[in-house]
Amino acid sequence: MEMVATLRATSEVIIVNWTFQQIGRELLQKDSKDESPVPDRNNYQGEEKNDSNFVSRPEKVGILAAGSVLACCVFLCPCFYKKRRETSDTALTKDQYTMDSASSFEVNSAAEKIPASPYRVPPSPRFSMSPQLSRLGSVHLNMSQVARATRNFSPSLQIGEGGFGTVYKAQLDNGHIVAIKRGKKEQFENLRTEFSSEVELLAKIDHRNLVKLLGYVDQGHERLIITEYVPNGTLREHLDGQRGKILDFNQRLEIAIDVAHGLTYLHLYAEKQIIHRDVKSSNILLTESMRAKVADFGFAKLGPMESDETHISTKVKGTVGYLDPEYMKTYQLTAKSDVYSFGVLLVEIMTGRRPVELKRPVEERVTLRWAFNKYNDRRVTELVDPLMVEVVGADILDKIFGLAIQCAAPIRADRPDMKLVGEQLWAIRADYVRSMRRG
């Protein structure tokens, strides 16, 4: 039945004559202290998405791969803008919809970076990368020590499963608890690039909202990444109610702010600009105090190496439902692609729904499109996760869903950068605190 529903939805989408309209770039230049700008509700055209996986294609079927990517873009991208309304840190898992297919990307040039502000986070320490990376981090283990720490990779210590491999909770000889991600042996050669990428990028960053690299092992057919252990599960697990207590509105807002800070650091203040490429709820880890850490840098890419460069070429990687539609159409990746994924994530945080849910009625299968329709009809209170019991004012919900929709604009030029997103979330938080005091 799901296949029939999917085919019916695809047919419906193909005949839609969809268009994009500019939101207005002045939206991106508003002071963060102003009321969060909200798009106009009067114009919208959207498209539904299929949740089919993308997989790597050999060159001999390159044309078919390109056609598949385009078809996925048409089905997955909710294109929902017309006019703008004039108001002013545990398991590293991969979703079943993770994709990896060949193509090329573009990233923002360093010249486009925004100057520092009171929201600026400290830069990462500079150092020269050695050809031998084995001493990176503070934890240096050999395979016998790893086997002892994981009880020979006991299934009882497994805390996650992903595209790269399995994640284990491990206790070192000194009593320190860490997470060890073990690459799949059957994909040893295929994972070489992803492994090197994650190790080198993690070694360059240091921020409280980003998971910290502690060390790694590259020995024989074993590839292991050792990171800090974040003890309170993934954001998706909490949204699914698997961790007991349901997240309240303030916790969800604080988590969104933490993620925005982490991405802002990657985009603007790391030694080199970093595009995460796989921002999603299962890659957000929570600490015991409910602080969020962005994890899993296996798909991450560095920005341009030279100041006069405006793009780099790479492969298409990401997770269906969070993928930037312009990125899929043009094969160009920028920091704004992370912003799009964050917009989808923000809707997910507030609604509790996954980006694509095929078991729901046709009009609700693509959560972003469903959310925009409710938002456009001024029914934002119906978007709130029903598991969240407290009452939140419609004006606060209007601002936060308006911001999410701005982030997920189908055209990257219409999206704010992550620094501005963080500032707007802070403004929404201040409004929420004031409303609680009045109440």
From TrEMBL:
Residues 30-53 are annotated as: Disordered. GO terms for molecular function: ATP binding; protein serine/threonine kinase activity. The keyword Kinase applies. SMART domains: S_TKc. ATP binds at residue 181. Pfam families: PK_Tyr_Ser-Thr (PF07714). Gene3D superfamilies: Phosphorylase Kinase, domain 1, Transferase(Phosphotransferase) domain 1. Residues 153-427 form the Protein kinase domain. PANTHER family: OS01G0750732 PROTEIN (PTHR47989), PROTEIN KINASE DOMAIN-CONTAINING PROTEIN (PTHR47989:SF71). This is non-specific serine/threonine protein kinase. It comes from Trema orientale (Charcoal tree). The lineage of its organism: Eukaryota, Viridiplantae, Streptophyta, Embryophyta, Tracheophyta.
